[in-house]
Amino acid sequence: MLNTAAHRLREGNGVHMRLLGRSVLVIALLVAAAGTAPLWPPTPGHAAVALTQVSSDPFTNVDGQHGNQVGPDIAAGGSLSVFGAFQAGRSVNGGSAGVGFARTPDHGAHWYTGFLDGITVYKGGGAYTGVSDVALSFRLNYNRWLVSTLATGGPGGSSAVLTSVTWTDGLVWKGPYTVATGQLTKNWVVCDNWVSSFGNRCYTGYSVSNAGNAMRMHISLDGGVTWGPARATPDNASGLAARPVILRSGTVIVPYLANNGQIRSFRSTDGGVTWSSSTLVATASHHTPAGGLRTTSMPSMQLDNNGNAFAVWSDCRFRSGCVANDIVISKTRDGLTWTAPRRVPITSTGSSADHFAPGIGIDPATWDAEARIGVTYAYYPNTNCTQSTCQLYYGFISSTNGGASWSAPTRVAGPMSLSWLPQTSRGAMFADALTTVIPPNGNALVLLPIASAPSGGRLNQAMYAPSGGGLPLTGGTVRG
Question: Residues in the chain with pLDDT < 50?
């Protein structure tokens, strides 16, 4: 029998914490019922793996579309702790009512969740009417998580990049601290956890939307509380950046989707004091997914234990007429020289499927030809669909030999109709990109915004995670 008793662990700085077992969070209740079968999927056709709901939208402001959570990010800190953050209550006019978080200390067996204070007027006395673009990173020497958010609807319609910080348990939060204000978008944050001459630094960046998406970077020497001045690249690199990677040397590599559609990168070798001009990664080709779905072809990048940085993005270069996207992968050791993109062989080049919004994870305990890689992605089985007929799915594929061969793909969730998703000025939204994290020697962990049909005037979209400790990495013999 399902135990729906909510277990309050502690309340700190207005953040309500709950413990989740291997059962589902039932609407607004946080459930602790270890061993109970998850309630997702509602019908047998929705998932090939068991999923556990870890959060739901608690907001009720009149200008929001409620019952929705979108835009997750997830990252690892230390050997066990994994942290995720996401938007809740996305509005048609842009931004969400608040930001939720979820932490697991045991590879996804249990989740602790809550919502951040001090960002929006709907939670904890913030000054902004919306929040978007959530990103996060772990700062080892402070034992601290940083959550970067883009607050919107401020004075004069301005936006701000903010940083909220917490220790590993997520019980007490500080901030948010202001990094920059203006017309900003697509913020990111990453911290250097290597033993290097720059190892105490965190880096954050964003694009200035009213300056042609010119990208700006800042550094913090105190774990995200204060930030230095904005810095640009010599060529004024412009576009939308993904979360960077940091090599053992302290070199920071920032991949991004340039305004001209190319995949490019730039780097810093002196702790963020200066940044290089950008380098071409690949001349990307991208098929816009049907149905007006909101998504981008931004790259996702992760690092193995020998300094190989792998980037993935959606690309139609292998499809005749660019009728659909594959997921492609490229590798670098220095951010300057990149391998030619190769297909991740999810389907054949003759299939009707369209793949997009990939997120790559790499086991940090593995390297080179034994690197364990997982890629989560969204897809349509039929690229030739319309807003009313498109069916959205999430999938997963893995490699245990550095990408030389791949497992068969796993259908994680779906189908979902686009009408089940919150609507934005740029189309129906689930996430601009997905993310994947693999703890050392562990399974792949993801947070996925999964929707069912709306009911009672509310959407039914919430954050789910694979039950029982994540998605196994099985490798395989399928070659790209």
Answer: 1-46
